[in-house]
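Quick entry between incubations.
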Amino acid sequence: MDTVVIGAGLSGLVAAIRLARAGQSVTLLAKGLGGLQLSQGTVDVLGYAPERVERPFEALGSYGKPAHPYRVIGASAVRTGVDYLAELVGPELLVGDPDHNVQLPTAVGAVRPTCLPQPSMLAGEIVERKRYAIVGFRQHKDFYADLCAANLVRSAAGLGSAVTARGITLDLPGRPDEADSSALTYARSFDDPSYRQRFTTLLKPKLEPGEVVGVPAVLGIKVLDAWRDVAERLGHEVFEIPTPPPGVPGMRLNERLTRLAKDAGVRIALGSIVSGATSSGGRVQSVSLAAAGRDRTYAAESFVFAPGGFESGALTLNSYGTISERVFNLPLSGVRDDLVTGDYWADQALFEVGVAVDEQMRPLDPAGRVVYGNLHCAGGILAGATRWSEKSGEGIALGSAVRAADAIRKA
Amino acid sequence: MRRLEADVVVVGGGSTGAGVVRDVAMRGYRAVLVDRVDLAQGTSGRFHGLLHSGGRYVVSDPHSATECADENAILTRIQANSIEKTGGLFVVTPVDDPTYAEGFLAACQATGVPASEISVAAALKREPRLNPGITRAFEVLDGSVDGWQLVWGAAASAKEYGAEILTYHRVTRIERQGDTVSAVICTDDKTGEEVQIGCSFVINCAGAWAGQIAHMADCPDVQVVPGRGIMIAMNHRLVNTVVNRCIHPHDGDILVPVHTVCVIGTTDVKAPDPDKLPIPREEVQQMLDAGEVLVPGFRESRAIHAWSGARPLVKDSRVGAGDTRHMSRGMSILDHSERDGLKGMLTISGGKLTTYRLMAERIVDAMEDQLGTKNACRTAEENCPDSLTGQLNNGHNYVVTHRLHDREEDRLHDQIICECELMSRRMFVDLIKANPTASFDDLRRQLRLGMGPCQGGFCSMRATGIAHELGTVDIERATGLLRLFLQNRWIGLWPILAGDQVRQTALDAWIFQGTLDIEHLPEGAEVV
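Done. Structure below.
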């Protein structure tokens, strides 16, 4: 086998597709479904640096401490990665101009910058004098229309835009007679035109002319233009607002990328942990998968390690305070005392701990020497960024995936 | 200024104050209880949740052991909804000196603490996670108690007898006329209003803060030295029985299953300020090591929250030496008429939650002695009414599965807002409607909102949305409540952050910062 990719998040999937399309035989190993469904389902490059960013690629060039992954990934690889993903999934799933962040409402009514949104979100962009009708469901507990609307007015004002917003809560379960419906349940129902009809019939009389309608991001999971149909039926602009997990927009991306990977010939083995590796002469020989019954060994020329960070359990902190990486026991950068502080609103240095890499994304030891010449890291395992607060997760994932895959192709 | 009249003002809404206000109200006095924050927000809510059988004290303090055994039986009956009859074990671990255990049963017998030895095999069958190296095991009647429910229950009983319970009423002054107490002045911190409560007697049950209250009545130098102890809650009930080490009472020798978690405790370190109680790393390590002795693999299970409480220990040479008949062990009564020439004021400190009812009885007896009256105490005979969330009672003791049972009943027509603790939307709505000025932490203490493994990761946004949707709070307050709740959860999270709780914290950060961008919401209101 040419390459084994570990991890089924954005960076693992994109690296696998890029390598397979270049003619490599690729196997992707992952414990679960990957982190996309936990995300907001857009592409962030840089949202805060730490002030709000309008032009992410301009800001990226000069942003970050020396250890930030963007310092070694570089703007051009990030750009390549973002363009590559946009082309892979197409305008049905991602739109926008990467040079300009859009400012979109969140479920609590904050205004969040992102680089490429899904087309179903675009109408939410904060524009002076916009009139929002935010619509929630009584049976969906992860979205509160009144809360979102009331804070949205305050948030927009903070950005110098006067908007109006009101909340509408519909009594419409995701499935018949259900009191507690998840975002995914709603999304599956919205795949069905008759459910969309019910929704728009219920909502339309409550709307006022000119209102832009914001709904939780549940407008279809398979049917990607369900939101357009809803907008046409209502005769109003409609946009989706990402919810806490399970996040439907992230699932859409995940499903599309997984299918593209399979179409490109990537073999995918989900459901087991990669538990260890063998190496020789500074190269990884194989990894072992703790599959049911017995361990399975996967040998390859190259390896892409994209398992995520602390959120996935790829990085662990034990009760004695020791931080480690589970599969290769890689040297970690950023480890020091007092990594966690009592200030909830501060970035915790713990989450910047990770693997330091060279330009080919190969792990480095503290002396700056490459640990394994054929192991390339991507995404959340990289040291130096608090991705959720600076809104850089997808940019780091894509830029590092491109660098890793291209280094392997050239090798 | 709001004006109230009472016979007795009780300062402090911990277990002592709640017990006292219930007792004075049942004896026919017009009573008002004030606390600067919520009921049982101080020491009475910051312990490990052990309802003592008395076993812990049979050797070191036999008198206390007997009191605990008696009061355990009374509380288990009169406050059934706050107490789970878990039973307890005293075990001799491989690192313990076996000689202590040799005298244990005889000491139990001498003090009236029910106990019997069971085989190691029987103990391990009952508690499979227990250290298999234990050499002896004794069964006792320890229980676990929800301090908040206990205090709310006593307060609810007091209210039935006409008492007023004023939370978030901060005492600013205690006035006197001549040599007698005449009024307590408070500020209602929820509204900013000043409140004057005319009275002829004040009972200072402010615990670790009692010195500060006495000072407001110009009774100087009441020295309370808070003894700080930390507790750590683990994500599961690693044991379903209280497990004690059969040794002289020591740090970290008790593991208590309470609600959905089990709690290891505790330490004892002098703390200069009861409002500044750190959770030092070395004490966290000490507790984890102690847990490992009782349950091998303890460190690999998931710590979800830690807290620090302050035992109030009065150091005052002027404690009336001849007053021992009014004393429960570990409790002190300062009579300010003897000490400072101020009639109508007692300061209480020390004691144990398990004996809170008895302490209250003694205190109110002391008050009546000073007043020259005598009414019978009936607090041991009459059950407390169910407090707000304890509707399961009907004379049965709390069982950990009750919420699962309730949700199976209502799952088709109600939402589960907090999956970790199985709190329904209805439970939340009912309580916030009844307490529209409550903070989410006030509600948490009764509903267990945000107390499970996700530590508010999912439920806190829901709580905010519902509270705002109901109209009980405006958007500024709603946002402030959310921010405060997350900040407060973090106080007990960061000192113990390890293992799967790190993973959870990262997920919560992805939700609140990554998806919701909460740190860029416009400021909320300053929330009390």
